[in-house]
Amino acid sequence: MSNIKPIGRFAPSNPGDGDGDEVRFCSTCAFGEVCLPVGYDKPALMDLHCLVEHVGPLHAGDHIFRSGEKFETIFAVRAGTVKTSMIDEEGREQILGFHLPGEMVGLNAIHPARYPCDAIALDTVYLCRFSFPALATLATRMPEIQQQLFRLLSADIGKAALLAGDHNANERMAAFLVLLADRFAARGFSATRFRLSMPRGDIANHLRLAPETVSRILRRFQDQGLIRVDERDVELLQPGQLRQLARCILPG
Amino acid sequence: MSNIKPIGRFAPSNPGDGDGDEVRFCSTCAFGEVCLPVGYDKPALMDLHCLVEHVGPLHAGDHIFRSGEKFETIFAVRAGTVKTSMIDEEGREQILGFHLPGEMVGLNAIHPARYPCDAIALDTVYLCRFSFPALATLATRMPEIQQQLFRLLSADIGKAALLAGDHNANERMAAFLVLLADRFAARGFSATRFRLSMPRGDIANHLRLAPETVSRILRRFQDQGLIRVDERDVELLQPGQLRQLARCILPG
DNA sequence: CGCAGCGCTTGATCCGCGTCATGGATTGAT
DNA sequence: ATCAATCCATGACGCGGATCAAGCGCTGCG
Description:
Two copies of one chain form a homodimer.
Chain A: H1 21-26, H2 32-35, H3 42-50, E1 52-58, E2 63-65, E3 73-79, E4 82-87, E5 93-99, E6 104-105, E7 118-121, E8 125-131, H4 132-141, H5 143-162, H6 169-186, E9 193-195, H7 200-206, H8 211-223, E10 227-230, E11 233-236, H9 239-245
Antiparallel strand pairs in A: 1-8, 2-7, 3-6, 3-8, 4-5, 4-7, 9-11, 10-11
Chain A binds a DNA duplex (30 and 30 nucleotides) through residues 168-169, 199-201, 209-216, 219, 231.
């Protein structure tokens, strides 16, 4: 159903207007600390802002990129949620992760030089689009950007390893909720009340569970007073307990 | 059992002797294409060789680094096998991966700025040791190095995702053997006959299986004529069949 | 020599979670 | 209004692989 229509574009960002709405968006971005003029000389920042292109709005089901396409750009999510997933030889989907505002998409494509997965909007999505060659070139002149890229890449290795471990359904589900809460919190959203932008089936897939199991565990968590679930709205009532459940998975 | 003795050191590499045994080692390394003088100006290469320190021999059980230690260096395996593993809150080991000659260790530590895992020699190991800050600085002057680091980091994201998927024991075991074979082949070793440098329990742990299951599956593969197993020596008799079994997991 | 300890294998049993089946609630198309 | 499609929930059942248990071969040590 999802179509191949060319992705919509905002007006390309004008380097001159970088201090208006930009700041509000960028302050939550993974690149915020290098994009925003915090103790950094203005002209260099212009270079970065110049190579950013705003993309959106995309709608649920739209593809940001597709598996196999030539890699040229990485994206930062400005609003909405993006899922990345691979389709294996058997045609089964394998969801690699969900990307919230402020998080990057496409870093796993640098090596193969082709996108190894699909990136799909789960709701209305706005993105910043970076030409990776241009960014890499800029990074040689701006060590902060190089460092930030190294950190982002390295962090993604850790994230990928988190849910790869040998843990049971309860632990994985708890870890998923807690990690989600932490990521929302890091971007300035509520850490205890949020809305799941993905269907149960996608959560299940990502956690290597059956959708039925996700339903049952959410029910059990609710019965135990750990959370409150209403459709896709979740409230963490006992974040500490949840964290305790997930402690084997969560980073240090 | 494994001790905290300071790691042994080779004589620091002398920039002047970089064309003797060095070439043989380096030609199999992940950094080989940038370390070796292939179409690259000599003086710049000297810079890279200067910041490399040779480490070894380490012996089975020796730690290269430990979880929680401050991150400063990444390592390339020159000989032997290194495993990286985390110990969770419950004290259970979680093996992230095995690193063969020519592969890098420590890239997942850039972000937290501390090593998130232990790195342990499985047999007699020789390493090249790179100061990461120095390497990053050099990378700003040598775009090839920056690119190579980006590629290595990005590739590790993909590797971490490979075995994270939802696959059964047969598929994971087959994928493990095939990936191992490919990695040996990429370094110039035989792709069909090799020796497992890790115990069954470590393979099992890495694949989220019980050691008993690993034994049984290897047995079954042998009964089916796919492989021949003798202790830790493995011969792939039907690499195509194995690859077929693992096709859901393997990249591209 | 005898014994302990470890790695590995193999068989028997058990359980977590997948699968299957059913039904309700929504949504959107006709 | 009707129907199809999607998403979610919940119960019944079965299977893959963990766990338990036992035994073998090897190594190191008293």
